[in-house]
Specification:
Elements (H helix, E strand, L loop, with lengths): L7 H10 L4 H7 L3 H6 L6 H11 L3 H4 L12 E2 L2 E2 L2 E2 L5 H24 L16 H12 L3 H6 L3 H14 L3 E5 L1 E2 L2 E5 L7 E4 L6 E5 L4 H17 L3 E3 L10 H14 L2 H7 L6 H12 L3 H10 L5 H14 L11 H9 L1 H12 L5 H8 L4 H11 L8
Parallel strand pairs: 1-9, 4-8
Antiparallel strand pairs: 2-3, 5-6, 7-8, 7-9
Helix pairs in contact: 7-11, 9-10, 10-11, 13-14, 14-15, 16-17, 17-19
């Protein structure tokens, strides 16, 4: 039986990258403590199993030291004014996948002769948030009255995504890595990111977050696209961002979703706070935390009163996001962007892209799934029998 040399530091790096508890992992792999101590060496088969469990390529596990794997996009995340720890494999693999999709769509758009999108990079940090937010609303056709009439946050988020995609932004919303439902994304690590590009701007929203939180994330990432900035977003509910860019994007997002002038007209200071928070959250289809912040911005709450109310509301809202369920092909369209899905399906059916490439970028293996996706998008002409 052939055994292989593996460095303990590499083993630790792999399970920490995967955010796995070594004690839990050792239940599946009882020899792990002995491998780490150097007392025993794993067989190649055992190391391959470890690689699958930690989502680590076998070649990396055979290295003499842990690989340096920096996040390939700007990372403004901080905790207590210091950078956060190394990104997880789930975050890295999600960014890599979205970059591949963006690169594919950029080439597709170039071949199709699509013009650059004028709004990408059209804003600047010295422009007032109110003016930029108004410009985004106008470009998207974002109507506050329409949103108020929508029954649920889910409907409002779906409409928001449709509006962004209609002007050329690829919006991908998923709570897992690719299509692997066992690799759930953690909103505590990141809420979303933006990949700015004049032909293929892309926004990814962590679908494991609440619908109301996803609304703010999408608005924040659109501000990044207007700024022409590629960056990662994880602004926790309790802390204000340390970076100027993140603060500006938060201001634009808040003004886009809850314009201060409209809030001042709508707010009833004499109403019971609980009733008023819920009413305004339904009215604007945002979280009650965003409403509290805007009430504070409008001057209706003092600093100490605001933070006391904010912390109480944050504690009340601490609950896991409910799963969406629904039609698989509708969900798939949201995960990969309907705009992207339609483009790659059409390109494949016309013979410009291979089925292998399409299946890889869409995140599934069966041709039957491809056919049904094409049918759900209404582009099933030319499908092989």
């Amino acid at each position: 039986m052939i055994r292989v040399d593996v460095q303990p530091a590499v083993l630790r790096w792999a399970y920490e990258r995967a955010r796995l508890d070594p004690a839990v992992l050792a239940v599946r792999m009882p020899q792990l403590p002995a491998w780490e101590s150097g007392e025993k060496r794993p067989t190649l088969k055992q190391l391959e199993a470890f690689g699958r469990a930690t989502h680590t390529p076998i070649g990396w596990l055979l290295g003499q030291e842990p690989p340096h794997e920096p996040l390939p996009i700007q990372d403004f995340r901080t905790i207590a004014d210091t950078p956060v720890s190394a990104p997880s494999g789930d975050l890295l693999d999600t960014v890599y996948l979205c970059q591949m999709r963006q690169w594919w769509y950029e080439e597709f758009a170039r071949i199709e002769g699509e013009p650059p999108l004028s709004f990408v990079g059209s804003a600047a940090l010295d422009k007032p948030a109110e003016r930029v937010a108004a410009g985004i609303r106008e470009t998207l056709g974002f109507d506050l009255g329409e949103r108020a009439r929508l029954a649920t946050w889910t409907e409002a988020l779906r409409r928001f995504i449709e509006q962004a995609e209609s002007v050329g932004v690829l919006v991908m919303v998923s709570g897992v890595v690719g299509s692997n439902n066992r690799r759930k994304l953690d909103p505590a690590e990141f809420r979303g990111f933006a990949l700015a590009d004049a032909l293929a701007p892309l926004v990814f929203v962590n679908g494991a977050d609440t619908k109301a939180a996803q609304m703010f994330t999408l608005a924040h990432e659109l501000a990044h696209i207007w700024l022409g900035e590629t960056a990662l977003f994880d602004s926790g509910a309790r802390q204000a961002p340390d970076h100027r860019v993140e603060r500006w994007c938060n201001e634009v997002a808040a003004e886009l979703l809850v314009p201060l002038a409209v809030l001042r007209e709508e707010h009833r200071p004499d109403a019971a706070r609980r009733v008023e928070l819920d009413r305004l959250a339904r009215r604007f289809k945002v979280s009650t935390l965003v409403i509290l912040r805007r009430i504070r911005d409008a001057g209706f709450l003092g600093r100490d009163e605001y933070w006391a109310a904010y912390d109480a509301e944050l504690e009340r809202l601490r609950e896991p996001a409910r799963g969406g369920g629904g039609n698989f092909y509708v969900t798939l369209g949201a995960r990969v962007s309907k705009r992207f899905a339609r483009a790659i399906v059409v390109s494949t059916l016309e013979g410009h892209s291979s089925y292998t490439e399409a299946l890889h970028l869409l995140g599934f293996k069966k041709m039957q799934t491809f056919r049904r996706l094409a049918e759900s998008l209404g582009v099933n002409h030319g499908l092989p029998s």
